[in-house]
Amino acid sequence: MTLGGVATDGPLLLIIGHGTRDASGVAQFRQLIDLVRDRSAGLLPGVDGGFIELAAPPVGEVVSRLTGSRPAELVAVPLVLSAAGHGKGDIPAALAREQVRHPGLRYRYGRPLGPHPVLLDVLEARIDAVLDGAPRAGTHVVLVGRGSTDPDGNAEVAKVARLLWEGRGYDDVGLSFVSLAEPSVPAALERARRLGAERIVVVPYFLFAGVLPDRVTAQAGGFAEQHRGMDVRVAGLIGACDELAGLVLERYAEALRGDIRMNCDTCAYRIAMPGFADKVGQPQTPHHHPDDLAAGLSAHDRGHHAHGLHDHGIHGSG
Asked: Which residue, among 310, 274, 280, 246, has the nearest Cα to 40 in the 3D structure?
């Protein structure tokens, strides 16, 4: 059988999320795993998912569950929207650790989910849902990314904002971040107000529920309270939907084809970006997950196997 033109009789699929303390966010992650399993039934030998921190199950537990004690090959798909620190460093470091724990383990590393036309269509649908019949004309959209200390990751969110604006009929699509980067959500809302917006749709660019999406909603609500003459609405999250499950399987298929086109041209770990020169060649180590019972590597081993993990999808195939 094939998936996206690729025979899938061997590699397992490991879906890796960051993790959240929000129980509903964890439940949505598990719903996505179930959706991917259903869509790939009979095509893949195994599908499972885990987190690098904050929630169970940890990646180590899931790798053991998927592979057992036998040498195995898997495709690891990072469930992240942009290639920032988690996708470039934390998740590859966790995978390198699993290769030490499981001799003979081989993996191919997929690229982040966005930006992708499917995600743009989902965001558009979330905006239409909250508009509830109100016209796109006269609507200012404020896209809210997580925010990162990686300028390349923030630039990817800026690209999504521009692509969301092109051809969809909104008056404007502004960019903001809820943490670690500017402009902030209140600053972006104030910009929209000064541009004459009377109706604003705030769009959290997040997969699942969590502390940061809740913060976005709270900040939008606070702005609306201060400007009662304005119509401020918050769109729903991407969530565990069929479109997202299909995109995960697309990333799986392209990893098998070897068609991994992660952007390295503006990666702060490869080139000296202004203000971030200290990141170049910086070693990456996996997060310590409190539920990871297999955490038996020495500090030396963790540093050795996590060093130089910035080859984005090449290092995992050896």
From this structure: 246
State percent of the chain over pLDDT 90. 73
SS3 248: helix
How does pLDDT run across 70-89, given as a tens digit for each residue? 889 999 999 999 988 778 88
Length of the chain in residues, anyone?
318
Q: What is the DSSP letter of 111?
A: P
> Could you give the domains of the chain?
2-113+242-317 (3.40.50.1400), 117-234 (3.40.50.1400)
Provide DSSP, 189-237: HHHHHHTT-SEEEEEE--SS--HHHHHHHHHHHHHHHH-TTSEEEEPPP
Q: Which of 237, 217, 235, 241 lies closest to 129 in space, CA to CA? A: 235
User: Out of 31-35, 99-103, 258-262, which region has the weakest mean confidence (pLDDT)?
Assistant: 258-262
Structure letter (DSSP) for residue 281: T
- Identify the pLDDT of residue 69: 74
